[in-house]
């Protein structure tokens, strides 16, 4: 089959690879109908991780089940499914308490709790930017969708970024009527803003410098804050009569940069501490890589981020962080889509064939004008 493989910094290629097969009784094989390129893929693409050459990428997957192992009883061949990016066993202490993003059994190889498809340090699993994908613990992990092809571009957001954006608002302790500051108008930030609106925010402020992305935030009812025009903290304080936001979401990650383009991993954390009122919450879903002194690239060596923890303390703010436990939210978010209340497909800018993946990566990575979210159709 054809699959997108990592070949080195800023190099991906579509290669012929062996088809996946059932390896353990609980596995299923899914024929991929849609698989997305994610901002998280860019950490690997830009050479900031130690992902191995030849790794099949892709953790935002959906499709139709074509094969099941003898232990699979709930999911059946022919089911249309969303595949949460977390691979979880369903029975460990983390999974039992809803924290599938920190499964204690799915990743025995990398010294961290939690596993994902096609990702550096997240277990030995192939990704789904391919024609087929093996899904472990299929009965537990897969979310069934209505048959057919309706809402394909909405449902494809259920594997990661819609639950991740929602999780950002949850970690921030958001309640109805809150003023919410979202840093980053990439796909994750836009999903956090969409979630905040759905959850009854009084106002949502979305910070970025990419005009096309800010325009999308405005379209879904948020206030765009262009950091290239003036300090985003000052702008939000001015808009809230000096009070600031009740809570905030970090949807940028350690590659945050200033308006001149210089990288400052601490910048967005500092801004959130400043702009969120005392005792308010901050949900950090942007990725920060663990410290790895032996890593090849500077990016992957990070881990220690010198943000203003003292002000966080003095303001008594709450901060939550980590990979999103997709399964905790995807059923409800699916039903919001089915009932017409949520429309996460608004951010889709490009639908490409798998063969065009290299161009999709390159242009999404450059944040070319209008390249907000790229879907691949194997
Ligand atoms: P993205 O890179 O497309 O979006 C990031 C956006 O942040 C860009 O639009 C960029 O212009 C903007 N930005 C840069 N510096 C900024 C600053 N100082 N202030 C405000 N905005 C700034 O990526 P994405 O797909 O939206 O993902 C965002 C982050 O979320 C990434 O770190 C990704 O790895 C992470 N992520 C986390 C999870 C999770 O489970 N926690 C899941 C998916 C993605
Ligand atoms: Zn993703």
From TrEMBL:
InterPro entries xrefs: ADH-like_C, ADH-like_N, ADH_Zn_CS, GroES-like_sf, NAD(P)-bd_dom_sf
Domain Alcohol dehydrogenase-like N-terminal stretches: 25-139
UniProt-listed SUPFAM superfamilies: GroES-like, NAD(P)-binding Rossmann-fold domains
Keyword hit for DNA repair: no
Keywords: Metal-binding, NAD, Oxidoreductase, Zinc
Protein name: Glutathione-independent formaldehyde dehydrogenase
One MF term in the entry's GO annotations: formaldehyde dehydrogenase (NAD+) activity
EC number assigned by the record: 1.2.1.46
Organism, as annotated: Amycolatopsis jiangsuensis
């Amino acid at each position: 089959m054809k699959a997108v493989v990592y070949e080195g910094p800023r190099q991906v290629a579509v290669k012929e690879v062996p088809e996946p097969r059932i390896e353990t009784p609980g596995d299923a094989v899914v024929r991929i109908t849609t698989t997305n390129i994610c901002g998280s893929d860019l950490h690997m693409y830009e050479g900031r991780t130690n992902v191995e050459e030849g790794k099949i990428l892709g953790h935002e997957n959906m499709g139709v089940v074509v094969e099941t192992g003898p232990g699979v009883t709930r999911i059946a061949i022919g089911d249309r499914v969303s595949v949460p990016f977390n691979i979880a066993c369903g029975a460990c202490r983390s999974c039992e308490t809803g924290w599938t993003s920190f499964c204690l059994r799915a990743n025995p190889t990398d010294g961290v709790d939690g596993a994902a498809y096609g990702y550096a340090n997240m277990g030995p699993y192939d990704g789904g930017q391919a024609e087929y994908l093996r899904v472990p613990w299929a009965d537990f992990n897969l979310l069934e969708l209505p048959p057919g092809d309706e809402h394909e571009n909405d449902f494809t957001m259920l594997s990661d970024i819609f639950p991740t954006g929602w999780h950002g608002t949850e970690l921030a302790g958001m309640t109805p009527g809150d003023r919410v500051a979202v840093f980053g108008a990439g796909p994750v930030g836009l999903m956090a803003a969409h979630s905040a609106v759905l959850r009854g925010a009084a106002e949502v402020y979305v910070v970025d410098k990419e005009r096309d992305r800010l325009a999308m935030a405005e379209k879904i009812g948020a206030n765009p804050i262009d950091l290239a025009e003036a300090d985003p903290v000052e702008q939000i304080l001015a808009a809230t009569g000096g009070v600031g936001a009740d809570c905030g979401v970090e949807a940028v990650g350690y590659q945050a940069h200033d308006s001149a383009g210089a990288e400052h991993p601490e910048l967005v954390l500092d801004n959130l501490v400043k702009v969120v009122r005392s005792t308010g919450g901050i949900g950090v879903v942007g990725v920060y890589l663990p410290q790895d002194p032996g890593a090849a690239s500077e990016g992957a060596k990070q881990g220690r981020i010198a943000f203003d923890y003292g002000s966080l303390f003095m303001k008594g703010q709450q901060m939550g962080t980590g990979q999103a436990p997709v399964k905790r939210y995807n059923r409800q978010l699916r039903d919001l889509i089915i009932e017409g209340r949520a429309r996460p497909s608004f951010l889709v800018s490009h639908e490409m064939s798998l063969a065009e993946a290299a161009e999709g990566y390159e242009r999404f990575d450059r944040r070319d004008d209008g390249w907000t979210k790229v879907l691949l159709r194997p």
